[in-house]
Write a structure and sequence with these properties.
The complex is a heterodimer of chains A (541) and B (369). Helix content of chain A is 53%, strand content 12%. Chain A is an alpha+beta fold. Among the domains of chain A are: 57 residues, no CATH class; 108 residues, no CATH class; 80 residues, no CATH class. In chain A, the strands form 4 sheets. In chain A, strands 10-11-12-13-14 form a 5-stranded mixed beta sheet, sandwiched between helices. A 4-stranded mixed beta sheet of chain A has the order 1-2-4-3. A 3-stranded antiparallel beta sheet of chain A has the order 7-9-8. The longest helix of chain A has 44 residues. Chain B has 9 helices and 13 strands. The N and C termini of chain B lie far apart (92 Å). Chain B is elongated. Among the domains of chain B are: 60 residues, no CATH class; 174 residues, 3-Layer(aba) Sandwich (Rossmann fold). In chain B, helix 2 crosses helix 3 and helix 6 runs parallel beside helix 7. Chain B has 369 residues and is of the alpha/beta class. The longest helix of chain B has 25 residues. The chains are: A alpha+beta (541), B alpha/beta (369). Chains A and B meet through strand 1, strand 2, helix 2, helix 3 and helix 6 of A and helix 1 and helix 2 of B.
Chain lengths: 541, 369
């Protein structure tokens, strides 16, 4: 691993890339570039784009596999862009790439760094990589204190919960858990309804008649009871659920009884995995934005002859942006062409009330009334305010689905998928096309579940201090033989009983024993209501 | 306003450290080693040593892939799979990796606590090889890298290579040249001969044949592991009322319904050892397999051959009664005579569960009462 300053050619290209980023008025954090050899690159990727990671067998397994694949030629050791965004951002270049490719990587990284810096999900934070390095050192020190066996056991247990993380969910830690720290916020249980009596001059008789009704008294009593129960729980354990919590790893990190070493491990797990949510929810916009600026900057570099190989670059870019069917969505392709399309919409003034209200199809087709807003400014506004869901909802149309070949499937693949002849709307020698209309909704549905089961923490005092998890039913069953080991692992972290309610079964792992119980799971909405009313969300009969 | 000094470049991790996963790879390999031990344990407990694949070749181990258990979709029915706790869950995928023959034998010897065989003949026969270790100013094979390094140093010293002044000449002088020099390496070479002796007078088929094959298979692999396959000669002898040598592939095939005399095969093997090999430089091993049903003074004769002819020159002689009957008497008659002897080992094998015990008897540390 060496600093880019050790390579004069790359240093020059870095300066030119940053020069054009500045010329295009990009908002960038400090970016640091480093050069890695192929095996370092593979290791970095396995460490989730951090230069260090605590010892664990999963990294070892992946590295053994990757090394074998690279050595036997099954996998190319070439990777294009790898960046850990944040302030500062760390970007890594593969030393086997040629200078033109390195320039394109740097230009691409410009797009990613700006996107992270500006996007509504606020992915960019200070010293992210440094924080991971710090935690890794602390964990390495704790490993000796914990003992290697305990360390290994605890680490493996944490691997089971790393997917149970939802920092940006509606039911994230902040919105779901009351603690000593945010008690003042939670005191506002229900907004007081504005009464007409508040707007008339005070009169004790009128107040008595209208305010001291039995209904009003009951309401006051209920609020007081809830407030009392809440403050009692908070003073006893320090936290209380006010809604189901989807950020289970976050909850365990904050509220489990942990040794210092265990805390470091959970902090590390959370820090490394929490950015994944941002990546998944903004991948199309993010990669598209990066490709957009890569192309702009590379065009300038080719113009000024800072680097050579425009034909090779075009070939590589065409490969990267090759269209794939919607279920294998290629974010580089879809994102880039979406941004181009949006830029054109703004140039033509098609993102305007006038355009939407125009009833003549002919006029709409020939619409060209450029708005006063600069297209690039408007696109920047989208970056600041949208994630992929909103991006696709607003701008992906049925025509674009067809134009971007999101409904095009390779014939062999179509056969494997069991596609019926009546589903095919057209075909050629190599591909078949399916109806583009349902595809947009299908793509949007992805963001409600991200192809993962939705698990919530619904009770933190189930069976005397145990956790009760709830699988929000979406018609699919959980993998049964993994429920027990997963609960066992959570039990190891929580150090108390852990139960899971899924479909019609309650699984419990407690004190080394595991049992299943038939139980009718209430609906998620019922659970939410019960928690808000201070009731137990579920009781086994 | 300018600072009176330059802020130094960041040093440490991002300057020169190498990113790697060595420690994690080591941890994974340790995990696999534990898994292998479990696999070896299973095989050994089952007594099926032939499942180790072809002799002396790497064997392919296949096991469930590992991944951390988590709440995922996919109901694949009941039944345990994932282990949980410290144990990673096991997915439906399988992972395959090859295990070198030597590593396998190492694991077996660790598990069975078998000591390495004592090799004799050290210093008598030597294997000579050449390794290119040293570097000199004269020779045949030029070490280009070292030569270039020296030439570069000289050229910088003499000023012919000076990029600052656009001088890029690297002159290779005679004294810059470095050659690889061969170094004679002598390693003691061990040689071993293994004589397998089989009784074909009884019907060797079914379970009896299986048991014999498994023990012979292990001995074959164990000696090859200890001496190196190229240094071990395996010879096969059978007997009924006469003794003769057969090919390895015929050892388990030959059958004869005639009478039996086992001492003649011991006599033949001891004569072959004495006449065909240099007893000073060869390690002899002999293993006899039979039902142990001997008549007249056969067992006493064998005892005498063992004592007089074989004991002085053999490293180990093993006698195994395979599925003995009520009239089997070979081990019974000889055990007192060689009770305290480390070279002569005897055991009886009734079923495959007893194979491991027999191997421990043949190759383990002698337990003295």
């Amino acid at each position: 691993m060496r600093n880019i300053k050790t390579d004069a050619e790359l240093k020059f290209l870095e300066e030119r890339v940053l020069h054009y980023a500045d010329q295009f008025n990009r908002t960038l954090p400090e970016m640091r570039f480093f050069i890695l050899d192929p095996m370092e690159f593979a290791s970095l990727l396995i460490k989730r784009v951090y230069p260090v990671a605590p010892v664990n067998i999963w990294e070892g397994k992946e590295m053994v596999n990757t090394r074998h694949r690279i050595e036997t030629g099954q996998e190319s050791s070439l990777y294009y862009e790898v960046v850990q965004t944040g302030r500062p951002s760390y970007a890594y270049l593969n030393e086997t790439n040629n200078a033109m490719t390195q320039a394109s990587v740097m230009a691409h990284v410009v797009g990613h760094c700006e996107f992270s810096e500006l996007n509504v999900m606020h992915d960019s934070n200070d010293d992210r990589t440094e924080w991971i390095i710090y935690l890794t050192r602390k964990i390495e020190m704790s490993r000796n204190q914990m003992g290697h066996k305990n360390y290994k056991t605890f680490w493996n247990a944490c691997e089971s919960v790393k997917a149970l993380i939802a920092p940006n969910s509606q039911y994230n830690l902040e919105n779901s858990v009351d603690t000593d720290n945010n008690i003042s916020e939670s005191e506002r249980l229900e907004p007081e309804e504005k009464s007409i009596l508040d707007s008339i001059p005070f009169d004790s008789t009128v107040q008595d008649i209208f305010k001291n009704t039995q209904e009003a008294k009951d309401k006051l009593l209920r609020i007081e009871q809830l407030r009392h129960a809440r403050s009692e729980t908070l003073s006893r354990v320090g936290y209380k659920l006010k809604a189901p919590c989807q950020d289970i790893l976050g909850f365990l990190k904050e509220h489990s009884s942990l040794s210092q070493g265990e805390k470091y491990i959970l902090d590390y797990m959370y820090a490394v995995n929490s950015t994944q949510d941002f990546v998944v929810r903004t991948q199309i916009m993010n990669e598209g934005w990066a490709m957009y600026w890569e192309k702009k900057i590379m065009t300038e570099l080719f113009k000024e002859k800072a680097c050579k190989g425009i034909i090779e670059y075009s070939k590589v870019a065409a490969g990267v942006m090759y269209p794939r069917p919607y279920f294998q969505r290629n974010p580089y392709h879809l994102g880039y062409y979406m941004w181009e399309h949006i830029e054109q919409l703004y140039k033509d003034g098609k993102v305007s009330l006038d355009y939407f209200e125009e009833t003549s199809q002919k006029k709409k087709e020939n619409w060209n009334k450029p708005s006063k807003v600069e297209p690039l400014d408007a696109m920047g506004h989208l970056v600041r305010t949208c994630t992929d869901y909103e991006f696709l909802r607003r701008f992906l149309t049925t025509e674009l689905v067809d134009e971007f070949h999101l409904n095009r499937i390779d014939k062999r693949q179509a056969e494997q998928l069991g596609l019926k002849a009546e589903d095919v709307i057209r075909e050629d020698r190599r591909y078949v096309w399916i109806d583009p209309r349902p595809i947009k909704n299908e793509m949007l549905n992805f963001y409600t579940h991200l192809y993962r089961p939705r698990i919530y923490l619904i009770d933190v005092d189930y069976m005397d201090g145990g956790l009760l998890l709830f699988h929000r039913d979406d018609g699919r069953a959980l993998r049964k033989d993994w429920i027990r080991p997963t609960l066992k692992n959570i039990n190891l972290i929580w150090k108390g009983s852990v139960s899971l309610l899924t479909k019609d079964t309650l699984y419990t792992y407690s004190a080394g024993s595991f049992n299943e119980l038939r139980a009718a799971a209430p609906k998620f909405e019922v659970i939410v209501e019960r928690i808000q009313n201070g009731e137990k969300p579920f009781r086994a009969k | 306003m300018k600072l009176p000094f330059n802020i130094p470049e960041p040093t440490g991790l991002f300057q020169e450290d190498k990113i790697n996963s060595n420690e994690s790879e080591g941890a994974f390999n340790e995990f696999i080693d534990d898994k292998l031990k479990d696999i070896v344990e299973d095989i050994i407990n089952d007594g099926d040593l032939t499942s180790f694949g072809d002799r002396e070749s790497d064997i392919v181990i296949e096991m469930d892939d590992i991944s951390p258990p988590s709440f995922t979709y996919g109901d694949n029915g009941g039944g345990g799979g994932g282990k949980g706790g410290e144990g990673p869950g096991e997915g439906a995928e399988r992972i395959r990796f090859s295990l070198p023959f030597d590593r396998l034998m190492e694991l077996i010897s660790e598990r069975l606590r078998l000591p390495n065989l004592v090799k004799e003949g050290q210093g008598k026969i030597k294997e000579v090889s050449y390794e290119f270790k040293t570097f000199g100013t004269a020779g045949v094979i030029l070490d280009k890298k070292r030569t270039f390094k020296r030439a570069l140093k000289s050229s910088i010293g003499t000023g012919t290579f000076n990029p600052d002044e656009d001088e890029y000449d690297i002159l290779v002088r005679r004294r810059d040249r470095r050659y690889k020099l061969p170094e004679r390496v002598e390693k003691p070479k061990y040689k071993a001969v293994v004589f397998y002796m089989g009784d074909i007078s009884y019907s060797t088929y079914g379970e009896r044949l299986e048991l014999e094959k498994r023990i012979v298979g292990f001995i074959h692999s164990w000696l090859n592991y200890n001496y190196g396959a190229a240094n071990v000669e395996h010879r096969f002898f059978v007997h009924d009322s006469e003794a003769h040598e057969v090919l390895e592939e015929d050892f388990f095939k030959v059958q004869n319904a005639g009478g039996t005399r086992a001492s003649i095969v011991f006599d033949l093997v001891s004569r072959v050892a004495f006449n065909e090999y240099d007893a000073e430089s060869t390690n002899f091993y002999g293993f006899y397999f039979g039902d142990g049903e001997l008549f007249s003074t056969d067992a006493e004769d064998i005892g005498e051959i063992l004592e007089k002819n074989m004991l002085p020159i053999f490293n180990r002689v093993g006698i195994v009664e395979v599925k003995p009957s009520s009239i089997s008497n070979l081990v019974e008659k000889l055990k007192d005579k060689f009770a305290g002897d480390n070279t002569i080992r005897m055991d009886r094998v009734e079923n495959k569960k007893e194979i491991i015990r027999a191997i421990k008897t043949l190759f383990g540390e002698k337990q003295h009462a």
